[in-house]
Write a structure and sequence with these properties.
Layout (H helix, E strand, L loop, with lengths): L5 H10 L4 H14 L8 H10 L4 E5 L6 E5 L9 H12 L13 H14 L1
Amino acid sequence: MSSATSADRLADYLAGRMTAAQLVAAVTAEYYKGDGSREMLRAVMDVIERAHPGIVELASSDQRPGFTVRLAERPFPKQWEPALREAVATVSGTASNVSPLPSPGFFTRVFRAIRKIFSA
């Protein structure tokens, strides 16, 4: 996982640079890691847990405490994305009427990939 802070991830989601599934994975991993940002992410986790129950799985581990928390591989429900966006906007302190940037189309993504190959 990258070294971006949870505030950076929330801002990326509001700006449209991160999908809901990516945000859910990042926020859930950071929340269950428990490194001090747990209280800040509580409102976002409430929406995630209501919309997406069972986002984490417990798996056995040889290390203490004997289990690890692993993310379940399921897509985030589309109908809950407005509630997730509002919770993220509330936590990050921005207005909730922020509209996401449209995701790039197929040809734009192909063009960027080709340009990236030739610029390296």
